[in-house]
Amino acid sequence: MSLAPSSRRGWRWKQPSVIPGFGLTLGFAIVYLCLIVLIPLAGVGWRSAALGWEEFWRIGTDARVLAALRTSFWTAALAALVNAVFGVIVAWVLVRYEFPGRRIVDAVVDLPFALPTAVAGIALTALYAPTGWIGQFFAPLGIRIAYTPIGIVIALIFIGLPFVVRTVQPVLEDFDREVEEAAATLGANRLQTIVSIILPALFPAILTGFALAFGRAVGEYGSVIFIAGNIPYVSEIAPLLIVMRLEEFNYPAATAIGAIMLILAFIVLFAVNLIQTWSRGRYGHGA
Amino acid sequence: MDVTVKNVRKEFGDFPALHDVSLDIRSGELIALLGPSGSGKTTLLRLIAGLDFPTEGAIYFGEDDASLKSVQERNIGFVFQHYALFRHMTVLDNVGFGLKVRKGRNRPAKPDIEKRARDLLEFVQLRGLEKRYPNQLSGGQRQRVALARALAIEPKVLLLDEPFGALDAQVRKELRRWLREVHESTGHTTVFVTHDQEEALELADRVVVMSQGRIEQVGKPDEVYDRPNSPTVFSFIGESSKLPVSINRGQVYFADRPLGLDAQGSADGEAELFFRPHDIEIVEDAGVAIVGIVAASRRTAGTRQVELEVGGAKERVEIEIPVDHPATAQTRIAFRPKRWSVFPSR
Predict the structure, then answer these.
(1) Which strand (E) or helix (H) includes residue A273?
(2) Most buried of the four, A76, A99, A180, B181, by CB within 10 Å?
(3) Residues of A engaging B, defined by a Cβ cutoff of 8 Å
């Protein structure tokens, strides 16, 4: 047996580790991701590649497609942004205060995960339609919510809420009370403590929640189609356009739109990830 | 700044953490709150800081009733056991935070804040680490940053909650000496909490011994060590041995034999005799002495610690004897405490 020190330099496939099973788990992870994520997504790429570049470009720059993509992305971004703000407040209330029914509220937060999105869409439409419970108060002011992009945003806020709450909640729970007390002894008032101490500490979690809510919202279909009104160039979302192409048996066009959405979503999520890595390195999480 | 604690009581729900505590802290003093966990020492410190509020009683800073002021208004420096640094800020920003959050005219200009923070980092011997983040520092360095941060606001009173509790022995010793130097050069009234008696005795001008929500004794380190005023203090501070004895006409008897020790004014009846294991003399005359059989012995540094069975094996006491003493297992040893205390049995 050789007892020579293992001084092999340079890059190595596997870092020495006391945790066994690296090969097995990595292999499983790759196979699993391939079957569930990569192969279906590659199928989208392959199918749309069959179109040829010119045809792909023609579909991608079609005015209606562009409008739908724009609607999809800005409503998703706005909804995720709203969720980032209000999700933090909900998480704050759930973590920081004891009140009757706290556990019930805590459970209610998860409902948008469980509810069939079509049910949510219909319920929201009924509420926000000009004759609905809530919509009736806005109708006289000339504000229409259902059947406009505002309605889409509301549906997307609904389905994205749990993401921000559930990512921020554990971080807030772990937040060291002594750090807040330290800020107070140094003379900082509550607002200063929240703005300059707590929010920066929550920032990576808020960003994660934002990314998840955004990702979910871009692809959302079920709840949106009921409340959106689906008016081309106004309140038509890209996933709906894909479904319409499918119903016309125009598979290449459907996959092309899908591929474009995929690329755009990937760019946004990748950017969020970069910001996260940067802030983590800075704040010393994980490292 | 004098700090006066007047008849303070604190309850958490139904649990009384402090019963009627009064304490005078003189300006510029270095005071240790010493006690086992659950003795209320941290509670008292937090009440002085304004992080908690007393159920009853008041706390005065000089002539002012500080009980009516919030923690922000009290202008105290507080150092936490686990540092409580702001991890998303550089060391420099951490130290400058207390000045940056000031309002209006009280806030120094930005360059002044930075200069003050740099000066303080120099003072705590951390020059060159200004741009680091807390997670890039060692425990000892973090605690220095925490102290610099607390000093930045020129506090009236400096409060430290087990400041060295999370550090290893070597660093702890070093920081202890250094804190004494800091105290002498700044002259702040300083109160620190510790459960480490060595730390309290070495560092403090006066030691406040606490137990079960009460102050047992307040005094200079020599006083609390040499003249403990209760069995609790005697057994908590330093090594101690105790024996159940009886008092008869001012004399101490153990197992019906006189020990030749004065009862120090204790009334006749059952009592407890306390002495330090090293404060004894070995005597030849077993007539007026405590006689025991060696049950166990172990060598510690310069002495030998011996456990004796006394009074027909019912009691065990520990004494220290010279290393060259010929005692082995089952040897009889007669000894008499040179200094002792007698407390009536409770």
Answers:
(1) helix A251-283
(2) A76
(3) 176, 178-179, 181-189, 192, 196-197, 200-201, 203, 282-284, 287
Name B191's Cβ contacts closer than 8 Å, sequence gap at least 6.
B3, B25, B31, B32, B33, B45, B48, B157, B158, B159, B160
pLDDT at position A281, please? 67
Considering only CB atoms, which chain B residues are within 8 Å of A197?
Answer: 86
Query: Measured between beta carbons, which residues in chain A are less than 8 angstroms from residue B51?
Result: 181, 184-185
What's the CATH number of domain B241-344, 3.40.50.1980, 3.30.70.580, 2.40.50.140, 3.40.50.1000?
2.40.50.140
Across the range B263-273, mean pLDDT stands at 85
What is A14-40 written as a DSSP string?
S---SS--HHHHHHHHHHHHIIIIIHH
Q: In this model, does residue A173 exceed pLDDT 90?
A: yes
- Per-domain residue ranges of chain B: 3-234, 241-344
Where residue A211 falls (left for φ over 0; alpha for ψ -120 to 50; beta otherwise) is alpha
Would you say A171 and A201 are in contact if contact means Cβ atoms under 8 Å apart? yes
Exposure string of B92-125, with b = 16+ CB inside 10 Å and e = fewer, is bbbbbbbbbbbeeeeeeeeeebbebbeebbebbe
Residue of A187, A201, A203 lying closest to B153 (CB–CB):
A187
pLDDT at A5: 52
The class level of CATH for B3-234 reads: alpha beta
Domains of chain A (ranges plus CATH)? 54-283 (1.10.3720.10)
ipTM, interface predicted TM-score of the complex: 0.83
pLDDT of residue A287: 34
Confidence of residue A10 (pLDDT cuts 50, 70, 90): low
- What average pLDDT does chain A have? 88
Residue B29 scores a pLDDT above 90 = yes
